[in-house]
Each structure stands twice: as C-alpha cells, then as structure tokens.
Design brief:
It is globular and about 75 Å long. The protein has seven helices and 13 strands. β4 and β5 form a beta hairpin. The protein starts with a strand and ends in a 12-residue tail after the last strand. Strands 1, 2, 3, 4, 5, 6 and 7 form a seven-stranded mixed sheet that branches. Strands 9-13-12-11-8-10 form a six-stranded mixed sheet. The protein folds into three domains: about 130 residues, Pseudouridine synthase (2-Layer Sandwich), CATH 3.30.2350.10; about 30 residues, no CATH class; about 70 residues, PUA domain (Archaeosine Trna-guanine Transglycosylase, Chain: A, domain 4, Roll). The chain is of the alpha+beta class.
Length: about 250
C-alpha cells in the first residue's frame, strides 16, 4: 500500500483521530482468478457494493474480527486488462478494500484478490498536496544548514487545515481564555457559526481564524438564534495555550 498519510506534529496530533476517521479514496488493482472476463458483469457486481455493506475484517488485520457496517460512497471502474481490473473507490474510514475485492470474486463465481492499493485522498488531504519523505528531509536540511525555511513552510500546513470538514463557530476574544482553561463556550460568546446539530463535533476558532478548541455541541445551532444565555459547546480537545487572549473584566 502507498499514498496519502496525514501526519500531525505537536498539538496537531490531537486532530489525527478526526482526520483519520474522515472519508478515504483509493485506487485499487484487483486480479481475477479467471481469464474469461465479462466487463459488464464486473461493473454490475461492483455497483452492488455502493452504499452500506456488511464487512468482517480479514484474518490479517489489526482489529477485532466482528461483523461491521461500512459505507461505500462510489466505485468507478477505470481500466480492464486481461484478468486485471483497475478501479477507484470512495469509502468510510475502516473499510477493507482487499475484503471488497475478495467478496466481489465470490459473487462473480471465480474468485479475486487485491494486488495493489494506493490511497489518493484522506479527508481533505489529496495526493496533490502530499510530499515525499525525501522532500521533507531536504527541506529540513535547508532550514538547519542554510537558514532557509521556505520549503519547510510550504510542506508543513497549519493545523487549521484539519478542521475544514467540521462545522465552525467564531468566538469573541473574551471567550477564548476561558476555553483554553476548559470552560464551556457560552451562547453570548458566539459571534458567528455554521449549522450543526446537538452531539456534533464543532471547531471553535477566533476572529482571526485560529483554532482554539474542538467542542461537542450540547444544543442545535438553531437554538443559538433564540437563546440569550446558556452553554453551547463543551471543549473536547483544547489547542491554544492560556494567556494569549485578554481575560474578561467586569
């Protein structure tokens, strides 16, 4: 397997669970156990795997082998060559592509297995945004030996990129420091917001777009329009250090 692997440094490591649970996209090479290939039949069988599917992880896996429900958003067949089939698949995190290849082979009646796999997207992070370890090593060398951090700044993205797929709330400056100490975000401290539902994870940012915390919503966003007081979000992960923003003084 090769492809996109988001890596967090410092406080950004707290975002990795959210990022790794986002939608994944792969390009897969499947080998059929026959030379009599019916392309239309394979496409028909492939479409049966779009939507919610039951899946038990394969024997060689790092998780408990229990039956799970996973969602496949799309399967697009790219090329057929002999008994090799190249296709693109977009799916929920934790979906085993080699198990899908195996199950396709069972339905087709002659068996199949995954030969190669490449992850081309993990959440908002795509293959075009990726850098190799060699490129990162060279950028680190330029910074340490030549005092040139331009390439390192190009390759290392702000952790705010990791919250692109989360609904966001903009908080007032005086609400930032209490959040940094773990206090809930109160409704009067919200300046602007995107739609969210009770129980959703919401990114709390400053007016300058800095990530303060990830909070769990204890109200629906519609309630903010009518309520004048009360709690809106309870911090789950705090990213900003206390003392950077002013404390509220009566």
């Amino acid at each position: 397997m090769s492809g996109v692997l988001p890596i967090g440094i410092g406080d950004a490591r707290k975002l990795m669970k959210i990022i790794t649970e986002d939608v994944k996209e792969y390009v897969t090479l499947m080998q059929l156990h026959t030379n009599q290939v019916d392309e239309d039949l394979i496409k028909t069988v492939g479409r049966k795997f779009v939507g919610e599917i039951y899946q038990k992880p394969p024997v060689r896996s790092s998780v408990k082998r229990r039956l799970r429900i996973k969602k496949v958003y799309d399967i697009n067949f790219i090329e057929f060559k002999g008994n090799l089939v190249l296709f693109k698949i977009s799916c929920e995190a934790g979906t085993y592509i080699r198990k899908i290849c195996h199950d396709m082979g069972i339905i087709l009646g002659y068996g199949a297995h995954m030969r190669e796999l490449r992850r081309i997207r993990s959440g908002i992070f795509t293959e075009e945004m990726s850098v190799t370890l060699h490129q990162l090593s060279e950028a680190l060398y330029m910074w340490k030996k030549c005092n040139d951090d331009s390439w390192l700044r190009k390759y290392l993205l702000p952790m705010e990129y990791g919250i692109c797929n989360l609904p966001k709330v903009v908080t007032s400056n005086y609400a930032v420091d209490p959040l940094c100490h773990g206090y809930p975000l109160m409704i009067p401290g919200i300046l602007a917001y995107e739609r969210f539902r009770k129980g959703d994870l919401v990114a709390i940012i400053t007016q300058r777009g800095e990530l303060v915390a990830i909070g769990k919503a204890i109200v629906n966003s519609n309630d903010i329009e009518t309520a004048k007081k009360g709690q809106a979000l309870v911090p789950d992960k705090v990213f900003m250090e206390p003392g950077l923003y002013p404390q509220y003084k009566k």
